[in-house]
Amino acid sequence: MQPDRRRKPRVLVVDDKHSNHLAFAAVLEDECELSFASSGADAIKLLETGQPVDVVLMDVHMPDMDGFETVKRIKQKDTLREIPIIFVTAVYQDDPFVKKGYAVGGIDYFSKPFDPEILRLKVAAYAAFRIKAQLLREREIHIKESEEMLRVGRKLSSILDSLPVGILIADLDGRICQTTETVARILNQKEPVNADSYGEMLGWWDSAGQMIKEPGGPLGRALAGEYSHGRPLLIQCLDGNVKTVLVSASPLRGLEGKMVGAVVLICDLTEAKQMEASLAQRVTNLISLGVELEETVARQ
Q1: Closest-CA residue to 187 (of 235, 249, 247, 248)
Q2: What mean pLDDT do residues 51-63 have?
Q3: Could you give the CA distance from residue 229 to residue 208 in angstroms, rounded to a whole number?
Q4: In which region does residue 50 sit, left (phi positive, over 0), alpha (psi from -120 to 50) or beta (all else)?
Q5: Boundaries of CATH 3.40.50.2300 in the chain?
Q6: Which residues pair with 10 in a beta bridge?
Q7: 150 burial via Cβ count (<10 Å: 0-12, 13-18, 19+)
């Protein structure tokens, strides 16, 4: 899922005085999603839970662990060091403390009383940079996952292409990205179509948002890390005919074991029954031929 650049900035206020929490809320609650911590230790604990935070407003003067030490510890953690932190203090306003704030990793330093409008503007600016960086990082990850999925999918397709089953490769969002020629034959495709149309036709997507329609269905289960085998699915083919296919789906993993999508196999149940009937008829014919030969030999 891509981060939403239109969402409100998420701001963590770290201050040991409840009255200051109320003051920040009065200034920022309309534009931001706020969370609060009353000590440096509480702030670190909250950030380590993975709660998303775009900007931290850090008081300097707090008991047990002051703001400088808190920020120093936050910046030592790989998953947290990129969060922008703004110091806000009414006590440590002299130049040496301001320099120390920047030295430990703060991105800005406010003295109380502060101009509410300037604080709002700066929080919005720093949050915007943070959200944009997240978007770029998520996009890069998505591109790498898509490339890995297609590479693994091509290799898998080349292995399975000789089998009388159709193969569809889906990404982590459920979009159909790759199919084999057998899929087109099973679904009676006469003209080229977008691969996404297969997902709509098989009932995996809704018609509006192109999201997985049935979480408990074969594709939805595969994207949740589960397996399903031989599930009958009634579908309407591209030419309007209705048929039953057998569907099996599994998670698709890259070389490092990370899930990059799902692989779906479909088999034409009608075709399989016809093949089975044809084989049974051939066996019957062979048996009949054997009986006829035995009777001919006996008569001679």
Answers
A1: 235
A2: 90
A3: 28
A4: left
A5: 10-138
A6: 33
A7: middle
Neighbours of 46 (CB within 10 A): 16
Taking residue 30's Cβ as centre, other Cβ atoms within 10 Å add up to: 9
Whole-angstrom distance, CA of residue 262 vs CA of residue 247: 13
Task: Render the burial of 180-199: b for 16+ CB within 10 Å, e for the rest.
Answer: bebbbebbebeeeeeeeebb
Report yes or no on whether pTM surpasses 0.70.
no
Please, are residues 196 and 222 in contact by the beta-carbon 8 Å criterion? Answer: no
* pLDDT for res 299: 58
The listed CATH number (3.40.190.80, 3.30.30.10, 3.40.50.2300, 3.30.450.20) that belongs to domain 161-275? 3.30.450.20
What's the CATH fold of domain 10-138? Answer: Rossmann fold (3.40.50)
Mean pLDDT of 84-92: 83
Domain with CATH 3.30.450.20 in the chain: 161-275
Residue 2: per-residue pLDDT = 42
Spell out the residues 6+ positions from residue 164 whose beta carbon is closer than 8 angstroms to its own. Answer: 182, 267, 271
Do 300 and 289 touch, CB atoms closer than 8 A? no
